[in-house]
Design goal:
four-stranded mixed sheet, two-stranded antiparallel sheet, 48% helix, 21% strand
Length: 114
Amino acid sequence: MKIVGIEGMSPDQMQFEIQRGAKLICYQYCISILVITFRRSSDAYFLRAGESAVSKGLPWTLLSLVAGWWGIPWGPIFTIQSLVTNFQGGKDLTAEFSSRLTRPTATQAVAAKA
């Protein structure tokens, strides 16, 4: 999964920002084509402490409002679910990502054994 907003950051810098209150968030969106409805998640977004998660998810919310409700019967249902998730600040992936940052990689494990 691609993470938007971490370009040029080292893992140590990301961990420091997470300790200061940064979050990794993904948003849901819904697209319908008459009888076919797709509900998907966006890429993950790195939000620094103090950044609004709701405003960062507005493009995905607007996409769902314009293209999501058309499909019968799932379009309105998935659109409402996407809107609720996005207006609650998206899905928080910080804990999962943070555990990956602190877990030693295979290269580090081999170096530690030597």
